[in-house]
Amino acid sequence: MIRNFNGNTRQQKEFFDENLGKLGDIKRVTHKRDGQSVEYETIIEGTEETMLLSGGFSSGYGGEGPNGLVYALTKMGVSNEEARKYAIESSDVSFVIEF
Question: Nearest-CA neighbor of 31 among 63, 64, 72, 1?
């Protein structure tokens, strides 16, 4: 498993970009947030490897972190409209996208 526990959105995007190609074809993205402690976790499962991103990509509001998550989702083939629905507009505490 490829892991990054950096809470900074910019650095998380760089880590994501550097490692996305190692995953193979994307099978599933799972995102969870704990609103009580403001913790976020994104798990990207590929045919070759899995990436765990803790922090950096947040959800549920219109800030830098959710926009970072929109960036990652669109790089994996999710439409911008659907990515914004999951990352910014939804009040759900978790979601799963199957590819």
Answer: 72
Domains and CATH numbers, the chain: 2-98 (3.40.1530)
Furthest-apart CA pair in the chain: how many Å?
34
Alpha-carbon gap, residue 31 to 55, rounded angstroms: 11
> CA 73, CA 95: separation in Å to the nearest integer?
12
- Distance CA(30)–CA(51), nearest Å, equals 11
pLDDT tens for the chain, residues 1 to 99: 999 997 789 999 999 999 999 999 999 999 998 867 668 999 999 999 999 999 899 998 999 999 999 999 999 999 999 999 999 999 889 999 999
User: Which residue shows structure tokens 């190692």?
Assistant: 22
Query: What single-letter amino acid sits at 80?
Result: N
